[in-house]
Write a sequence for this structure.
């Protein structure tokens, strides 16, 4: 994994504040576990209202939390006063989201001046054991002169 | 657009029943507008709890409804007694989900025996006018001997 | 399909000149069939040296020509004096590249100021009949102040 | 990285034989560096005929070698007598392919019975130093009853 220098000393506070201002993250019950320069982890407890017809967490929810984890990994490297936009994301669902909770980990692969490319993994945690359930990639764009809030 | 022959005469009822059994689609307030052989449309009213920090519908929600629309487009072509699994999806968010509601349209591009590849578009509807806000692709897998419910 | 206004009246000449300056396109024998505002078509004759172990055109070659077709569809909408860079592309190979030649068609879905998102399809032509063999998506970036050559 | 058990004791010979039977890999001058259970590395020397208009290796070539590296990573885990097909691949080009040679490394993330999902990275090697130039994901399908040659 690359070693990134944050361009904003307050990156952690800025990311947490942005996460807390997303109604949808609250609506599904996601929580921000950690943010470090170029990396972010989000946790989501299993809830019946988040499932598809077989009782597993819906693939769209898996996509939403890993999109957020990768987006905040990117945002942790942004300059002060900027915001970050998801350009695109792609995920492979490799196992059902079957567990007590899901953990989504996003990590920057390459931080350019305008675009940041990140990779992500989602794990289902069951009886304390993690099973890989999705791998993802995201391209995010830094809007240098548009604050996040 | 290709012209597809359904392999299950009851495809529409089967798709509707599957959609109705997905708690997450109800949780976000999505509704199934239509399903025809190889195509599916899902509608989602704008709700404050579905938004990100700027008041637009969260990209993860956009992904969830287009993943579902493409998955049900694929499922409309499945044989009786089978179910369909999302293998992967990818979306480009090309404009904010800004409107009274979103419409997600999925359409099968190629239906193989095991895998079905679909394309999708999401539009934001504002004052009756549609604006493209996402384009997507999905690979789905037919599980021939595993019923949907 | 959207109707695009070119921002460079000489877009066709600029695209052709750029295509002609790509040694790799010549190396595989690809030719530029047409370019219109927001769309581009590339043709590739079947050659033994372009194949994989089963005699079909290699998936990497299919990716190369559709990446180029989408990139030039994007470039047709760029301002004078700029160049275009592929940020990412994704393709689904839905049938073998089996035919006398392949046709790759790229089309812009959304042209922003910095990023252009395009979709593409590749067809294998055999006995005059086209079979879809790949669907693709691309994100391209306009480098406004960096000429193409 | 996961630890994979090969299902074919002769996996290395089978992968090398398949690679050697791909005319396109020879046409661009790619060579198979190594194959271990679930991983594969391919090397490509810089050649003028592989470039785009700025003298860097064409993005389509970068896609071709990482598609192959991921496909052979998947193939290393296949049962005897089977072959592997690329279902889809996606790559982000994060830096120009600028160097004396490129190295493409593919690695299986999850090996299912029918589908294998792999991740890949391409590095440009210049003066002995590696620079990340692409990240990729691939879905491959095992054709259990169709030999590779």
């Amino acid at each position: 994994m690359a070693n990134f220098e944050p361009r904003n000393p307050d990156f952690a506070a800025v990311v947490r504040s942005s996460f807390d201002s997303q109604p949808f993250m609250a609506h599904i019950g996601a929580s921000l576990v950690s943010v470090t320069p170029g990396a972010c982890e989000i946790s989501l407890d299993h809830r019946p209202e988040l499932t598809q017809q077989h009782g597993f967490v819906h693939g769209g929810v898996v996509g939403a939390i890993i999109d957020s984890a990768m987006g905040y990994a990117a945002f942790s490297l942004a300059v002060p006063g900027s915001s970050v936009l998801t350009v695109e994301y792609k995920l492979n669902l490799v196992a059902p989201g079957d567990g007590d909770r899901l953990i989504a980990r996003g990590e920057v692969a390459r931080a350019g001046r305008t675009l940041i490319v990140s990779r992500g993994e989602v794990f289902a945690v069951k009886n304390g054991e993690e099973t890989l359930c999705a791998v993802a990639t995201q391209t995010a764009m830094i809007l240098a002169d548009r604050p996040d809030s």
